[in-house]
Amino acid sequence: MTESVVSDGAPAGAVTVPPTGAQYTIAAEGYRAVLTEVGGGIRALTYGDRPLLMDYPEDQPPVGGAGQLLIPWPNRVRDGRYIFDDEERQLAISEPRTGNAAHGFARLLSWTVLAEEPSSIRFGVRMFPQLGYPHVLDLTATYALGRGGLEVEVTATNVGAGTAPYGIGAHPYLTLGEGLVDDAVLEMPAAAWAELDDRKIPTGLRDVEGTPYDFRRARPIGDLPLDTPFTGLRRDPDGLVRVILRAGDGSHGVELWGGEGVEWLQVFTGDPLPEPYRRAGIAVEPMSCPPNAFETGENLLRLAPGDHVSHRWGVRALS
């Protein structure tokens, strides 16, 4: 039987599905967020008419990983190879230009809505074994809006039989809504940065003192290109680490905070991105471990069967 087709090539009566699947909107206290089925990610966040995160159109995939959750490892694993409990493993090479495995599996999975309210939504997914990762994790991601802006909590539970290596990251791009990040002022309480090789794998830790990477005191970003892991994070008395991006005239800004277990921040000015996204926002990625942690073991978590762990981060508008 021959299918009836229309001029655009889609089967008659078909509904076009966005690359990130179903879209969900939550709102409260002047904030509005759009979340996606694919990856359980965030596509947009605004406060009033101000964008706080660099967004992308519904009919396109996330540009530069915008808004994705990076599980069970953030950033990269060199050659996709690592040894865990004396077992050599090989992950799929998902970043051919560097020959690395990048950003985990969860960002490409279809997440299910477990609970939904006007101001919050909770997604869940069971991540079954993947090439080089023979573990089963139950993941949840809760997004909630309130007076303090957006709060995100991600939980992983090992429901499989063996101990699993685990790390987490997220990929929000902070934005001031207009202009390039060159004109913005960045404040980040990080005392050290990791130097990277040409495959974006750390080669050593450096003190920020006296280098272009010292943002412990607020200063303009200028034309500095960043795709850099930072650590040595100073926390405020409430236990949170805070990164602030402000307009050059100080009129408004946006803050990203990370809770317990956020030990690293990957900061990316988006120089390789296509227009109009190039340097339109600055990714401040809260991470539990650095790049290549599956190989080095640095800050890598071990989840025994039945173990669970949660990480929190959030974004709010500054006047």
Could you describe the 3D structure shown?
β18 and β19 (202-207) form a beta hairpin. The longest helix is centred in the last third of the chain and has 4 residues, at 293-296. The chain is 1% helix and 43% strand. The protein has 319 residues and is mainly beta. It has one domain (23-318): Beta-galactosidase, Chain A, domain 5 (Distorted Sandwich), CATH 2.70.98. The chain has one helix at 293-296; strands spanning 23-28, 31-36, 42-47, 50-51, 69-70, 76-77, 81-84, 87-90, 101-102, 112-117, 120-127, 137-146, 149-158, 164-166, 169-170, 173-174, 185-187, 190-196, 202-207, 219-220, 227-233, 241-246, 253-258, 264-268, 282-287, 301-303, 308-318. It is built from one helix and 27 strands. The strands form seven sheets. Strands 10-11-12-13-27-23-22-17-20 form a nine-stranded antiparallel beta sheet, with no helix packed on it. Strands 16-25-24-21-18-19 form a six-stranded antiparallel beta sheet, with no helix packed on it. Strands 1-2-3-4 form a four-stranded antiparallel beta sheet, with no helix packed on it.
